[in-house]
């Protein structure tokens, strides 16, 4: 807003100024109004008019009334109030009334201008005011040595003190406002961070439960089908074997589920291995393959013999990727053969799980096309350790999951 527009709107206060209009501000205005009235009224009532002075009368008493009343408007129009107050007091002296001082009655107005962010307005008005006042007194024949030697310094000191106090009050208020904004921003950021953590925990919980349950439940479902067919064929041995496999797999699922929930509750301390951790490793891939083989699926493991020691995160990711890939094969592909390959590269580890089935159905829950929970969960888990995942049909038929993890 330009200076002209600001004056036209009456808003000659700095937009950044934050002085309030509440009860405390009204009390302050009342105190300043009383101070201004007293600062003018006492000299008027006690000074004896000089030979050339006009006696105190009703018109002269308008000065303290006007100056004190102007304090009510000082917050809205600080510059205008200072200019008007200066003009009124100069008019008082132009009518030759007894001296009542100049700087002290105007000190609250100078303070307000600086406090409102118009410091240089106050400096300029103060310079003009003193120039007019001292010029008039010199023209009246007053001693220049007395004026400049004894009266100029106190006049400058009082005006400068009022401006400095006002500017200091504005700076303190601005610092408080900036601190409050900083605290509000920090509180907002803390709230957003808390929401992010809750969302991360929710995703982590969903991923852990899916990883723990999806594989074993799929195996149980397939073994239940085998048991049902064996019962229809009156093959008690096969039925018993399938039921026994179901029981073992269900026990494993419950153990893993309890362990996963314990970890999610924080019951297992970081770095501790209490035997309950549901997350497997490369060393557990053979038992994992045996579980899939028990359903009739031919699983071949082709593991590199020169694998380096893996970090816990990468080791667990390898296991989860293979586990989820086998689960998808069992649930969706109808494959008979699966090949799991782990190959070491220069600074990376490649995981490839390929089957000879019909590929994952587009509308399935774990479909690669639709980004279902299984493949999406694998992709999220792989990304956490800085790897990448590709999944989709292969030209020769079947489906492949390819993962590259950094070592």
Structure overview:
- Helices cover 62% and strands 9% of the residues.
- The chain has 11 helices and 5 strands.
- The protein has helices at residues 3-9, 23-46, 62-70, 78-94, 103-115, 119-139, 144-232, 236-264, 285-293, 312-333, 373-384; strands at 298-303, 337-344, 348-355, 388-393, 399-406.
- Strands 1-2-3-5-4 form a 5-stranded mixed beta sheet, covered by helices on one side.
- Helix 4 (78-94) packs antiparallel against helix 5 and helix 6 packs antiparallel against helix 7.
- Mean pLDDT is 78; it is low at 268-277 and 361-372.
The helix content is 55-70%
Q: What's the total count of β strands? A: 5
State the end-to-end CA separation: 60 Å
Instruction: State which percent range the strand residues make up.
Output: 5-15%
Summarize the structure.
With 407 residues, the protein is of the alpha+beta class. The chain has eleven helices and five strands.
Secondary structure topology:
Blueprint: H1 3-9, H2 23-46, H3 62-70, H4 78-94, H5 103-115, H6 119-139, H7 144-232, H8 236-264, H9 285-293, E1 298-303, H10 312-333, E2 337-344, E3 348-355, H11 373-384, E4 388-393, E5 399-406
Parallel strand pairs: 1-2
Antiparallel strand pairs: 2-3, 3-5, 4-5
Helix pairs in contact: 2-3, 2-5, 3-4, 4-5, 4-6, 5-6, 5-7, 6-7, 7-8, 7-10, 9-10, 10-11
């Amino acid at each position: 807003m330009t200076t002209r527009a600001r004056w036209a709107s009456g808003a000659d206060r700095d937009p950044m100024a934050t002085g309030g209009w509440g009860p405390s501000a009204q009390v302050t205005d009342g105190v300043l109004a009383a101070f201004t009235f007293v600062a003018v009224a006492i000299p008027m009532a006690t000074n004896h008019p000089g030979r050339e002075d006009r006696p105190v009368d009703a018109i002269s008493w308008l000065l303290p009334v006007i100056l004190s009343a102007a304090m009510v408007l000082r917050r809205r129009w600080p510059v205008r109030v200072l200019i008007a107050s200066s003009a009124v007091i100069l008019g008082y002296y132009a009518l030759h009334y007894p001296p009542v001082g100049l700087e002290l009655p105007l000190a609250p107005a100078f303070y307000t201008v600086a406090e409102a962010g118009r410091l240089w307005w106050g400096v300029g008005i103060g310079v003009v005011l003193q120039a007019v006042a001292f010029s008039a007194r010199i023209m009246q024949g007053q001693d220049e040595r007395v004026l400049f030697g004894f009266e100029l310094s106190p006049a400058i000191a009082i005006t400068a003190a009022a401006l400095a106090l006002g500017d200091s009050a504005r700076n303190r208020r601005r610092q408080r406002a900036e601190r409050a904004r900083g605290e509000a921003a920090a509180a907002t950021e803390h709230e957003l961070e808390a929401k992010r953590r809750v969302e991360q925990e929710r995703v982590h919980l969903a991923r852990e439960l899916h990883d723990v349950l999806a594989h074993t439940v799929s195996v149980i479902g397939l073994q239940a089908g085998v048991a049902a067919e064996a019962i229809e064929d009156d093959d008690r041995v096969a039925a018993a074997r399938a039921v026994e496999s179901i029981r073992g797999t269900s026990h494993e699922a419950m153990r893993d589920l309890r362990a996963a929930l314990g970890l999610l509750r924080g019951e297992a301390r970081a770095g501790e291995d209490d035997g309950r951790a549901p997350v497997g490793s490369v060393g557990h891939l053979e038992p994992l393959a045996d579980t899939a083989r028990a359903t009739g699926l031919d699983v071949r493991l082709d593991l590199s013999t020169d694998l380096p020691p893996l970090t816990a995160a990468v080791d667990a990711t390898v296991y989860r990727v293979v586990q989820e890939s086998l689960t998808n094969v069992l649930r969706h592909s109808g494959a008979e053969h699966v090949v799991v390959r782990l190959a070491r590269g220069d600074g990376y580890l490649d995981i490839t799980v390929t089957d000879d089935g019909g590929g994952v159905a587009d509308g399935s829950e774990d479909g690669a096309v639709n980004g279902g929970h299984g493949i999406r969960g694998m992709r999220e888990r792989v990304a956490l350790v800085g790897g990448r995942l590709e999944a989709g049909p292969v030209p020769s038929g079947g489906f492949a999951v390819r993962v590259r993890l950094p070592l």
